[in-house]
Amino acid sequence: MRVAGLNQIAVSDHMDTEAPKVAPRHGGNIFTIFITSLSAAIVVAGGLGIVLQAGILAAVARMGLGPSLLWVGSAINAALTLWLAVWTFARSWHVERRLKAGLEVDEPKLSILANFRGS
């Protein structure tokens, strides 16, 4: 078996190193961004809410605690799940708009309003 040396390998005269003149278009229209953001919110917040509620129900049943603790735990879980759903929707909306504008994704903020404003 014979191996070609480095000086025997053909080198191309043309190299494609130029950047495209048109920036790549990321993201979709407003309807696509809405569906993507809503889906992300449902999956993230819904999944966490279901798992936390199952834990609350198991703890109340296992420890024999009264229904008042079940209601309090469920209310806290509902508030946390609702906040997480709105935050996930806002964050996804923010990221999709940045990608559509050709910008980089920034660090997440805990503020829901900051994500909607785009700050």
Describe this structure as you would to a colleague.
This protein has helices spanning 30-63, 67-100, 112-117. It is an all-alpha fold. The chain has one domain. The chain is elongated. The chain starts with 29 loop residues before the first helix and ends with a helix.
SS content category: mainly alpha
User: What is the radius of gyration computed over CA atoms, rounded to a whole number of angstroms?
Assistant: 25 Å
Fraction of helical residues: 55-70%
In the residues, how many domains can be counted?
1
Tally of DSSP helical segments: 3
What is the distance, rounded to the nearest whole angstrom, between the alpha carbons of the first and last residues?
Answer: 63 Å
- Globular, elongated, flat, extended or rod-shaped: what is the shape? elongated
Strand count, sense and barrel status of the largest sheet are: none
* Uncertain regions spanning at least 5 consecutive residues: none
Counted beta strands:
0
Give descriptors for this structure:
single chain; 62% helix; 119 residues; mainly alpha; elongated
TL;DR?
This protein has 119 residues and is mainly alpha-helical. The protein has helices spanning 30-63, 67-100, 112-117.
Topology:
Layout: H1 30-63, H2 67-100, H3 112-117
